[in-house]
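Q: what sequence does this backbone want?
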């Protein structure tokens, strides 16, 4: 019997978190972080559970796993590794996992520009008639993902599901008025988070834990 599925794990608006000294933090980032809100081990355990849910739902037949770069690559790697491990002993018939990549850009510093650039794969004909799993690091307003899903729909996939490590909490999402993926690891407050490949102007991708950046960090690494 599979474990009961739960909704995204909610990280409170003012999370107590963990002190930076309680875990290993790269020295070059220590002065620019406020606190750890999701330790790496918790991220990895939650990723395993999401993988089990995905195999249960769409494990039959080939899957095209579409990674949204750059922030989604670590989550993508860990999630697919678990899907492959679980698939070996599952009653579901996972025949093949095809991997592809796309890049979306909508942020400068900590603000969304309101415009979405789709960069990368020009030929998505390989998703036609197939089950597609889009893997993203974080969904904020949902507008970026909605635009991507609109593009994917043109290629007539059999089914498209989205797995996001994080969703960022907003009034629209609380009231059911914002796009929410089918699979979500954690629901975080409307604050800028970094680590586990989530960046701030390309910094902090090499930080394992998911942390809140402090004001000193925002100033230090802001885009010119």
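A:
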């Amino acid at each position: 019997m599979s474990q009961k599925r739960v909704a995204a794990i909610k990280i409170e608006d003012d999370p107590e978190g963990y002190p930076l000294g309680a875990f290993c933090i790269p020295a070059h980032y220590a002065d620019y972080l406020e606190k750890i809100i999701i330790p790496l081990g918790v991220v990895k355990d939650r990723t395993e559970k999401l993988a089990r849910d995905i195999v249960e739902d769409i494990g039959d037949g080939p899957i095209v796993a579409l990674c949204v770069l750059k922030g989604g690559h670590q989550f993508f790697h860990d999630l697919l590794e678990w899907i492959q491990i679980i698939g070996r002993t599952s009653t579901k018939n996972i025949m093949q996992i095809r991997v592809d990549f796309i890049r979306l850009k909508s942020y400068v510093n900590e603000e969304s520009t309101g415009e979405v650039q789709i960069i990368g794969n020009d030929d998505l004909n390989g998703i036609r008639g197939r089950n597609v799993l889009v893997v993203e690091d974080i969904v904020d307003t949902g507008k970026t993902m909605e635009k991507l899903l609109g593009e994917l729909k043109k290629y007539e996939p059999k089914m498209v599901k989205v797995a996001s490590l994080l969703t960022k909490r907003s009034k629209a999402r609380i009231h059911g008025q914002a796009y929410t993926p089918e699979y979500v690891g954690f629901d975080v407050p409307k604050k800028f988070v970094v680590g586990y490949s989530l960046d701030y102007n390309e910094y902090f991708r090499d930080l394992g834990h998911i942390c809140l950046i402090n004001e000193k960090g925002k100033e230090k690494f802001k885009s010119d």
